Amino acid sequence: MNLTPWQIYKRLLQYLVPYLGFFILSIFGYILYALTQTGFAVLMETIVSQMDNPSPNAYIFLPIAVISITFARGLGGFIGTYCLDRVAFNIVYELRKQIFSSILLLPRQEYLRQDSGSYLAILIYNVEQVTSACTSVVRTLVREGATVIGLIGYLLYLNWQLALLFFAASPFIAIVIGIASKRFRKLAKNMQSSIADITHAASESLQGNEVVKTFGGYETELQRFNRASDDFRRQSLKMTVTSALNSPVVQMLVSSALGLLIFVALYPDFMQPMPASEFVAFLITAGLIAKPLRALTEINGPLQKGIAAAKTLFAVIDSAPEKDCGTHSVARVKGELEFKNVNFQYTDSSVLKGINFTVKAGETVALVGRSGSGKSTLANLIPRFFELSSGSVLLDGVPIDEYQLANLREQIAIVNQQVVLFAGTIKSNIAYGGLEDKTAEQVQAALSIANATEFVDKLDRGIDTPLGEKGLMLSGGQRQRLAIARAVLKDAPILILDEATSALDNHSERYIQQALERVMQDRTTLVIAHRLSTIKNADCILVMEDGEIVERGNHQQLLVKNGLYAELYHQGFEQSEQARD
Ligand SMILES: Nc1ncnc2c1ncn2[C@@H]1O[C@H](COP(=O)(O)OP(=O)(O)OP(=O)(O)O)[C@@H](O)[C@H]1O
Ligand SMILES: [Mg+2]
Predict the structure, then answer these.
(1) Which mutation among 352, 368, 375, 528 tests ligand 1's pocket best, with the greatest number of atoms within 8 A of CB?
(2) Which of 318, 333, 358 is the endpoint of a domain?
(3) What would the pLDDT profile of 116-173 be if each residue is shown by its tens digit?
């Protein structure tokens, strides 16, 4: 959906509704602030006229007026700023929450298409840009706008003919603003994409630091990052040039108008004579307009930046979440899994072709095949990480897209090649998400099944040991055992193991093997296996090649067949796995 700037304003305004009270208060504050400016001009007129002809108590009244006006100005400014910032921070908070929840719900396909840097840039930089639109723009608009209106009113009151002459300059000012605004919008968009490049370049080199170091990527990464930074520098500079040129040009126009004014007022016999105090007040007032007027023209920078940023924000907020139209829901499935003529493609070329197989409840299927043959892809279809291109996958005879998405995923536990651990303790990582209310005893039991007690028990704080950047660092095998424990604790009827034992040494692998066999017993298991021990014990082995199942059967049958399986077997599954790593 392509939102116009006006639609974006309106949508931003809707975020204002819950905080309307504070917003109105801030407007009152700023109007009070603005009125003091006109008050000051009026005071000037009074002071000049009192000079010629002082009234008896002017020496008391005028100083008090000066102090009162300054006090009102300070009070109004404080109320305005405090209330407006309060509103803005709330809106930023609200927007961040919404964006993050939208990002979490995006289909997997979307994450693969966009790099994570651009999402981070949206969450951090774009939201910040919207803040400046919310605060500085509204602040300037209300405060300086009201100032300008007040001053204009006073000018008209003092001498409307002169005032109209002065305003004749305004169309020129408007044209300058129009040109600048177009350029701002374009520059703001460029800046946004270059900040995404910076975050992308930085986060990739930080995450892949080992590769950068071992493959001598220092120069390459440095250049890539510097290029992105340099791009940002150039865009920022262009923005500055535009905005810095903008205000002197406007000021020139204002002072030309002022000059014209003096010329007309002083030209003999041109206008009716004005009292000196009024003329001085008129000039002061006209001069006072220049600053707020300039500020008004400068809101374009943040405003256009804010709009460009808000547009991206709303695009993320509006992006379609994972499809979840199913209504079927069960407490616990039996676990019969059937693939019927399943075809799948990520983009244009087909990755899975005519996949047909059935796994009875409680049985184990091993997927075997060369790298890139489509094993992980097949496994990822079961929890509906991707939508099928055609065909169907049935769980207990019901197509998986008829299940409620959350209910379907409750039935499945996955252990992946890449183990993801979050900041938190060992316990919070194992009893993660929906498993939060599991007890420490249950966590301990899961750890012991996963053969992880051996290293967890050595820790002083046991399962309460913090993990992650500031906590305990784990080896690949230890991480994998924690991932297995997480899957064990979930106790789901369907278990998917994607090379779950690949990072374990032979010693722990044997333990894990026994443990997994225990875990697999009562559940349907789909295991992507490179290890002979896992494969041999499977009820059925599916051999994949180029997205198709080319052979199926048990270990003995497949060896007799002397096809691809026999070939892989003779190469030695483990060895081919090591060679690939
Ligand atoms: N997100 C993706 N977008 C497009 N194509 C993909 C994506 N993920 C995988 N592919 C392609 O799909 C094919 C199958 O990949 P898949 O990850 O399923 O292989 P695999 O059998 O699990 O391999 P491995 O044993 O190396 O893990 C590959 O040709 C790969 O290039
Ligand atoms: Mg894989």
Answers:
(1) 375
(2) 318
(3) 778 888 888 888 788 777 788 888 888 999 999 999 999 899 888 888 877 876 677 6
